[in-house]
Amino acid sequence: MQYKSQKIAQNFYTAAVLLFLVQVIVGIVAALQFMWPDFFFLNFNTVRTLHINALVVWLLMGMMGATYYVVPEESETELWSVPLANLQFWATVFAVGLVIIGYIVMGINPQANMQVFGTNLLNEGREYIEAPRWADVLIVISVLLFLFNCVMTVLKTKKFTAVQGVLLGGLTFLALMYLPGMFYTKSMVMDQYWWWWVVHLWVEGSWELIAAALLAFMLHKLLGTDVKVLAKWMYIEVGLVMFTGILGLGHHYYWIGTPKYWLWVGGIFSSLEPIPLLLMVWDAFRTTRETRAPVSNRLGLYLTVSHAIFNFVGAGLWGVVHTLPQVNKWTHGTQVTTAHGHLAFYGAYVLLVVAMIYVTLPSIRGVKEYNQTRGYLSFWWMTISMIFIVITITGAGMVQTYLERLFGLDYVTVKANYNLWFWIFRAIFGAGFLVGVLILVVDYFKLGKEKA
Ligand code: HEM
Ligand code: HEM
Ligand SMILES: [Fe+2]
What we know:
This protein has 452 residues and is mainly alpha-helical. It contains 15 helices and two strands. The chain has two domains: 160 residues; 245 residues, Cytochrome C Oxidase, Chain A (Up-down Bundle), CATH 1.20.210.10. A two-stranded antiparallel sheet has the order 1-2. The protein starts with 8 loop residues before the first helix and ends in a 6-residue tail after the last helix. The site of one protoporphyrin IX containing FE has 23 residues, from helix 6, helix 10 and helix 12.
C-alpha cells in the first residue's frame, strides 16, 4: 500500500463481508419458507426485504471501500480527510442498523409502520429500496460526503485518470439515480415508472460503469497492462453500456400501463445490452493472455476474470433470454426472473467486490504473498452452489410459466405442489453457498496474518 489513508477501505470491506453473511443466512430462511411458510418468527415478506436490502447495502459498502482505495492510488496522494471518511463509515453503519431494526419491528408489529409527516416511519414498500424517508436523507448525506472527500482528494494533485473519471462519474450517476425513488406519486403506474429508474439504471447503468472502471484498475494492478489500452476499451464498454442500458429500461415498461412504444424501445435496446458485457470478458482474457510477467496474486486475477465471465452470463445471457416482449409476456415475474436476478447480482457485483477485496487487501495488510487456498475454496463453493441454485429456479420458473400462464393453474397450487422439489434443491444448494461465504469470512479475517 502506497498511502496510509487507503487503509480506510478495510472498514468498508469488513462491514460488507459480515452483511454478506447475514444476507445469505436470511436467504436460506426465505428458501425454507417456500416449503414451510411459518418456519420463522418473521414472515417471508420481511425476510425477503432483509435479504435483498442487505445485498444492495453490502455491495454499495464494498464499492465505497474499493473507491477509497483506488482514488488515492490514482491521484498519488493521501485521502483528503480520513476523519471524514471514518465519520461517513460509522454514520452509514448506524443508519443501516436502525433501518434493519425498523424492518424487524415492523415484521413483528406491522402497525408500527405509522405515518409521520406523510411518510412511512419504518418501510416505504418499494422493493430493494424499502428504507424509510429519514434513512434516505441520511444515505444521501453520507454519499455526498463520500463523493466530496474523493473529489477533494483528486483536486489536491489534480491527477485525474481515466479509471478514476469513470469510477467517480459512475458513483455520481448512482447518487443521482437514488433521487427518483424518493417521492410518492398517487398513480401506481408513475410510481413504478420512477422506481425502475433507480433499480434498472443502477444495475444496468451506473453500477456497470463502476464495474468497467474497477475491471480496468484490477487488470492494470495485477498484470501491469498499459493504461492507455485499458482506458480505450473501458471507454468503448462504458459508451455501449449507456447506449444500450439507458433505453433498455423499457424492458420493465411492457406491462405496467406505460405507452406501447416501450415494447419496441425496450426489446431492441435491451437485446443489445450483452454486447458491452461480452467486450469486458474479451478485455479480461486478452490482457491476461498478453502478459509475460509472472503474476503473484493469481487468486485476484482468477476472481477478476470470473467476474467478467459471470457478469456476461448472469446479466447478459440470463437477461437476454426473457427480455423480448414476446417472451417476457409469459415469463414476467416468475422464478425465471428470480434466477436471472441471482446470477446477475452474483456475477456482476458480488464477484466484483470479492475480487476487489482480494486484489487490494494484501497490500492493505502489508503482505506481498498470502495463502490463496481458502480463497479458491470459497470461490468454488459459492460459484458451483450458485450455478445449481440458478439451474434449479430456472427449472421452477419454466414449470411455473407453463402451468400458470398456459394451463391457468393458480399461483399457490403450482408453488405448493408442482414446484416443491425445486424448493428442496434450492435450499440444499443454498446451504452449499453458505459454506462458501463462511470460508470467505474466515479467510478475510486471516488474510496476511499467517505464513504464506
Ligand atoms: C448486472 C446487471 C443486472 C442485474 C444485477 C439484474 C438484476 C435483475 C433483477 C434483480 C431483476 C428482478 C427485478 C424485480 O422484479 O424484482 C431483473 C429483471 C429483469 N432483467 Fe435484469 N439484471 C441485470 C442486467 C440485465 C440485462 C443486461 C438484461 C437484458 C439483456 C436484463 C433483463 C431483465 C428483464 C427483462 C427483467 C424483467 C423480468 C420480468 O419481467 O419479470 N437484466 N434484473
Ligand atoms: C450472492 C448470493 C445471492 C444473491 C446475489 C441473491 C440475490 C437475490 C435477489 C436479487 C432476489 C430478488 C429476486 C427477484 O425478486 O426476482 C433474491 C430473492 C431470494 N433469494 Fe437470494 N440471493 C443470493 C443468495 C441466496 C441464497 C443462498 C438463497 C437460499 C437458498 C437465496 C434465496 C432467495 C429467496 C428464497 C428469494 C425470494 C425469491 C422470490 O421472491 O421468489 N438467495 N435474492
Ligand atoms: Fe433492467
